[in-house]
Amino acid sequence: MRPIAAGLGIGLAAAVLTVPTLLGQAGTPPPAGEARWIVDIVHSQIDFRVRHLVGRVRGTFTNWYAELHTQGDDWTRGTVSVNVQTTSLNTGNRLRDDDLRSSHFFAVDSFPVMGFKSTGIETSDSAVVIHGMLTIKERSRPVTLRGQYRGVAKDMEGHERIAFDATTTIDRRDFGMSWTPIVGDAAVIGNDVEITIALEAVRVH
């Protein structure tokens, strides 16, 4: 196991490099009154979980991009968009990952990107509900993510950061992923997939 101090050092170094990179992606300033935030993937995650027989398999995506646009500090009137490179999925097992990338599931050669775009955001105290459209294999379905708004704070360099995490459950068959092996009378893989998005984003305008 990597020593904790070394792990923290690598994480802090990555964080220091991340902010200038994000600022470099800022591009054209948004309309007056609108703020733009770009995800810091060093401190963010997209995870999924699905049943395998009587257990659970967890996975993540390592290559993705997200933006938030807010009306000043009022992000409930804003938008969230996420684009994920499907080939970057990782469950910690090479053979399983190859199968997930195949035509049985994500078919990454034909559908290299999946995405989410919000259509509305609701909050109550620290609770957040994000409505939007999830697109996988060019099939778009409405989903609702529920979770917590973590607030806004300034980092050590004075950059504003915003964070939230939220979870939804989808039926993979709605997105063209119905294949599963059968053992006896039982499907090896569950149809319900839990997806969690945990975002920390840096304000660039």
Enumerate the strands of the largest sheet in spatial order, edge to edge or round the barrel.
1-4-5-7-8-9-10-13
- Proportion of strand residues: over 45%
How many DSSP-defined strands? 13
Could you tell me how far the N terminus lies from the C terminus, measured between alpha carbons in angstroms?
Answer: 40 Å
* Run of helices and strands: HEEEEEEHEEEEEEE
**Stretches where pLDDT falls below 50 for ≥5 residues?**
1-24
Instruction: Return Rg in Å.
Output: 18 Å
Structural class: mainly beta
Mean pLDDT: 85
Q: Indicate the percent of residues in helices.
A: 10-25%
Number of helical segments with 4 or more residues: 2
- The biggest beta sheet, please? 8 strands, antiparallel, barrel
Shape: elongated
Map the helices and strands:
Layout lengths: L3 H21 L9 E6 L5 E8 L2 E7 L2 E8 L2 E12 L3 E2 L3 H8 L11 E12 L2 E10 L2 E16 L5 E12 L10 E2 L2 E2 L1 E15 L2
Antiparallel strand pairs: 1-4, 1-13, 2-3, 2-13, 3-6, 4-5, 5-7, 7-8, 8-9, 9-10, 10-13, 11-12
Q: What report would you give on this structure?
A:
- By secondary structure, the chain is mainly β.
- Helix content is 14%, strand content 55%.
- The chain contains 2 helices and 13 strands.
- An 8-stranded antiparallel beta barrel has the order 1-4-5-7-8-9-10-13. The chain has a two-stranded antiparallel ribbon with strand order 11-12.
- The longest helix has 21 residues.
- The radius of gyration is 18 Å and the shape is elongated.
